[in-house]
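In response to the reviewer comment on reproducibility (Comment 2.3), we provide here a single inverse folding case reported in full, input and output, so that an independent group could reproduce the run without further information from us. The structure tokens appear first.
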């Protein structure tokens, strides 16, 4: 089975906890977590600036989702959490989800990250 790649900020403690959550639920081992500073982002068509702003999920086919759309796709891949995906299909839900994602990303330091990146307010 081809694996999906979840590109995230490996220096962010908040992001690390989210990746650990994904790993716990990924019982089929479909998702490979890749800190963006340790991968060739160009290979995935993701810029450094984009990787600093939001997580990205890359499908085996090469399709890429970012931010809340990536979160939706991650949930779809996780056994036991797939049913939650319907929430993203409620009219207006993606609009709200993306704004919430950006709000949290800019305030990661309030959610338990003490890294210099998070204190600067750079999104993840």
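Designed residues, in position order:
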């Amino acid at each position: 089975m081809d694996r999906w790649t979840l590109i995230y900020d490996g220096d962010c403690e908040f992001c690390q906890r989210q990746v650990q959550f994904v790993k716990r639920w990924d019982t089929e081992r479909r998702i490979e977590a890749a800190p963006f500073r340790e991968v060739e982002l160009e290979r995935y068509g993701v810029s450094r600036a984009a990787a600093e702003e939001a997580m990205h999920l890359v499908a085996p086919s090469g399709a890429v989702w970012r931010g809340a759309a990536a979160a939706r796709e991650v949930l779809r891949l996780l056994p036991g959490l797939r049913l939650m995906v319907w929430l993203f299909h409620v009219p207006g839900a993606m609009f709200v989800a993306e704004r919430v994602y950006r709000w949290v990303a800019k305030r990661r330091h309030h959610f338990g990250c003490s890294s210099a990146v998070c204190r600067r307010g750079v999104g993840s």
